[in-house]
Write a structure and sequence with these properties.
- The chain has 632 residues and is an alpha+beta fold.
- 35% of the residues lie in helices and 21% in strands.
- It is built from 20 helices and 22 strands.
- The strands form 5 sheets. The chain has an 8-stranded mixed beta sheet with strand order 5-4-3-6-2-1-7-8.
- β20 and β21 form a beta hairpin.
- It is globular and about 115 Å long.
- 32% of the residues are buried.
Length: 632
């Protein structure tokens, strides 16, 4: 039999993975306790202190001691209740796991009690327990997380990465509970102060005011599931999945299957590699789902998953069409088919037209008469259906034919050939010769270059030809350049005429704050400017004229794309992310000198054949490869 302390530490390895896990468990308990305001205070990204304060029901003296035991819970009393859960937690493992790997102080008081209880526990052992004076509700102070498991503590990432995870867990609980107030502080700085509000206001308050214009509402009621929430407009899609939130009965879940349903709703609306923003709330009867399949309760099973997939896909697609986000079937409608509204008081007048009965197209006299006497048309030719018959403009057009000869005489007076004297065969030969000259390769100079579909640069070599991906090539060039800049701390800055203020979400701001010194070394001129704001006075010269906001958004997308694999964004990761964000995009037209410079700089790199992410930059086609394509 394992000692209780060891068993608790093993259980804590499943439930408490990092400081964000502690905040998730304590905030869920506060919500289950009926709190209206939840306050989270963090120091050193949770290493030194995690404090969660709520104004919920509080605990009695007996519960204040029993809650630290494994599998002790007040949320269920029988196995049957597992299929009718209306609470966040039910296992009774959270507090026991936290107490096994941290120094914990808890103060709690019920509304009808004058005094509360304070319990201090360390490594699963109660150190102190006594009455105390405290506010209604419960306050947890978690100090020195993993103090007795140093190997686990060493696996924690940098403060920026750990704080990013904390903010993510905070948002996953704050978004679905818009009727509650939430606050988050880190090292004395306020990151969130969310008051009770509507769902749309909560999303805007969580991610920033700029998201208000990006939201498309989704709403659908069925007998199986109710879907509500918002999806983002396609033009604001990102290169990472970070801003995708799916809630079932106000519980955040991860579901690859349902995520695919939402992605299919955006089919043909997003470029490859882009992911839409969405925050969707699914309401379903508790007995139709099973949440008891994962220790962190982020995965669940549906009784009829296929039906929910179809409903979710169709309702998102319908919302995109309803708000004119998705193209409709009549986008090529002829404008002449748009009819005016019917007016009951207007007299219907059929259109009339006068015809010359003596007109004969084979009679030269009739033709001359027609050229001098236009056909008369009825001046009153409008009808209720919007059809009009206007006078023919043929006379005006035919009357200008003599001007053609006047133009010809003017050309002749300038010594230029008239149209009759042009030698079209010679002109075609000259055009063909000019094309040959344009693509002619001089053996004494560099090879000719041309751009293919504004994505690739193609050039001839002795054994065949090479095709260069212009974006990946530019990424490799910038990556090695930024690595050299970081080594020498001599980045070139393009100062802005007017400083630009960039507003970021709390999660992005927490991530980029730790990278400001490296960014300034690369050529940025950035300072923090108030809560979640940055003031940018300059950007790297190599940024190519991008605005500071666009450049930082691209940089953050790349950082988050590589965050899971690289962990701590070091110098190399920062240089890679900035190279990805500031490189030219497919579809950019390049002049000959630009292509020449790109090729020269690429082959001057230490590793010219691969992008910073290991993707090929150059593909070679030999003459043998081309000959093989023409063989039957």
């Amino acid at each position: 039999m394992l000692p209780d302390a060891v068993a608790n530490q093993i259980a804590a390895g499943e439930v408490i993975q990092r400081p964000a896990s502690v905040i998730k468990e304590l905030m869920e308990n506060a919500i289950d306790a009926g709190a209206s305001t939840i306050q989270v205070i963090v120091k050193d990204a949770g290493r030194s202190l995690i404090q969660v304060i709520d104004d919920g029901k509080g605990m009695s003296e007996v519960d204040a001691l029993m809650c630290w035991e494994r599998h002790a819970t007040s949320k269920i009393s029988s196995a049957d209740q597992l299929f009718s859960l209306n609470t966040k937690g039910f296992r009774g493992e959270a507090l026991a796991s936290i107490a096994a790997v941290a120094q914990v102080e808890m103060k709690t008081r019920q509304a009808d009690e004058e005094l509360g209880r304070m319990v201090c526990i360390e490594g699963s052992k109660i150190k102190e327990e006594e009455p105390c004076q405290c506010s209604k509700g419960t306050s947890f102070s978690i100090k020195n997380l993993f103090f007795n498991v140093p190997a686990r503590r060493n696996f924690l990432k940098s403060d920026a990465v750990e704080m990013k995870h904390i903010i993510e867990e905070f948002q996953r609980l704050a978004i679905p509970h818009a009727g509650l107030a939430f606050q988050l502080y880190h090292n004395g700085n306020e990151l969130f102060n969310l008051k009770a509000q509507s769902s749309r206001q909560r999303i805007v308050g969580t991610f920033g005011a700029k998201y208000d214009e990006r939201l498309v509402p989704v709403e659908e009621e069925t007998d199986i599931v109710s879907v509500m929430g918002f999806v983002g407009k396609p033009e604001f899609a990102r290169r990472t999945r970070g801003e995708q939130y799916l809630f079932v009965n106000d519980r955040f879940i991860k579901s690859t299957y349902l995520n695919h349903a939402i992605s299919k709703a955006f089919e043909d609306l997003l470029p490859e590699g882009s992911f839409p923003f969405y925050t969707l709330f699914l309401s379903i009867e508790p007995h139709l789902i099973d949440v008891n399949i994962h220790p962190t309760k982020t995965e669940l099973k549906f009784q009829d998953e296929r039906a929910i997939y179809a409903i979710l896909r169709s309702c998102v697609r319908r919302s995109l069409g309803r708000f004119n986000i998705a193209p409709s079937l009549d986008f090529d409608q002829e404008s002449s088919l748009n009819l005016d509204a019917y007016d009951e008081n207007k007299t219907v007048v059929p259109p009339s037209i006068s015809v010359n009965p003596n007109y004969n197209p084979f009679d030269s006299k009739s033709t001359q008469q027609r050229s001098s006497d236009p056909v008369e048309h009825s001046s009153s030719s409008s009808s209720d259906f919007g059809a009009t018959v206007s006078p023919s403009p043929r006379k005006e057009r035919d009357g200008n034919w003599k001007e053609l000869y006047a133009i010809t005489r003017e050309l002749e007076s300038q010594g230029r050939n008239s149209p009759e004297d042009l030698d079209f065969a010679a002109a075609g030969a000259a055009l063909e010769e000019s094309q040959k000259e344009a693509f002619k390769v001089d053996q004494h100079t560099d090879q000719a270059l041309f751009q293919l579909h504004r994505r690739y640069v193609v050039t001839q070599i002795r054994s065949g030809m090479i095709v260069i991906d212009q974006q990946r090539a530019h990424q490799r060039i910038l990556f090695e350049h930024y690595l050299g800049v970081l080594a020498n701390h001599k980045g070139s800055t393009q100062q802005s005429l007017f400083p630009e203020t960039v507003s970021l979400g709390p999660s992005d701001h927490a991530l980029i704050s730790a990278l400001i010194p490296s960014l300034n070394a690369l050529g940025f001129d950035i300072e923090e400017f108030g809560q979640n704001d940055l003031i940018v006075r300059g950007v790297p010269v190599e940024a190519g004229g991008l605005s500071a906001e666009e450049l930082l958004e691209r940089f953050l997308d790349s950082v988050k794309h590589d965050a899971d694999r690289s962990g701590v964004p070091g110098k190399e990761d920062t240089a890679k992310s900035l190279a990805m964000g500031s490189s030219i995009r497919p579809g950019t037209k390049m002049e000959s000198e630009e292509m020449r410079s790109l090729v020269d700089e690429l082959f001057a790199c230490e590793v010219p054949y691969f992008s910073p992410r290991g993707l090929p930059t150059i593909i070679t086609f030999t003459l043998e490869d081309l000959d093989q394509k023409f063989k039957r």
